[in-house]
Design goal:
This protein is mostly helical and about 150 residues long. It is built from eight helices and two strands. It has a two-stranded antiparallel ribbon with strand order 1-2. It is extended. The protein starts with a helix and ends with a helix. It comes from Ornithinibacillus sp. 4-3. This is Helix-turn-helix transcriptional regulator.
């Protein structure tokens, strides 16, 4: 199963980045035949090459090896980005966040968040930012501005 997941991810990422097998081979210092064998599942890259591929494509090593796009319904995410699942918008605008998302950012009942929105068609979306983080960041900017005026 791991061979299939890795080979699918590798093939997807190579095509998504508009690399030929030869281009990719050159970038990480292997032969085109090696890339072809990895993508077909005939063989697996060693850990050094897996790390080079993950770095090149800006994905986590864990996701490169284990992320199953077919099961998740989403393409492999960039490093540090997560796609948890789809959730419905409920009555009065409520959205129940997936447990994995809540656990990842250590949200707790009673925490306060700033809701940010982006209406740009290329990046439309909503983000939740912990109020403490936003307040600390804003205070740092204000302090930096004060210091630079002296």
């Amino acid at each position: 199963m791991k061979k299939i997941t890795l080979s699918r991810n590798l093939s997807f990422l190579r095509k998504e980045n508009n690399y030929s097998q030869e281009d990719l081979a050159e970038k990480i210092g292997v032969t085109r035949q090696s890339i072809a064998k990895w993508e077909s599942g005939e063989s697996l890259p060693d850990i050094v090459n897996c790390d080079a591929l993950a770095t090149l494509f800006d994905v986590s090593l864990d996701n490169l090896i284990h992320y199953d796009q077919k099961d998740n319904g989403f393409p492999i995410p960039p490093k540090g980005k997560h796609m948890f699942n789809t959730v419905p918008l409920e009555k009065d605008g409520y959205v129940k966040l997936p447990e994995d998302a809540v656990n990842l950012v250590m949200m707790q009942e009673g925490d306060t968040f700033l809701v940010l929105g982006d209406e740009n068609p290329k990046s439309i979306g909503i983000a939740l930012v912990p109020l403490e983080f936003f307040t600390t960041m804003t205070q740092g900017i204000l302090n930096h501005t004060k210091d630079s005026k002296k």
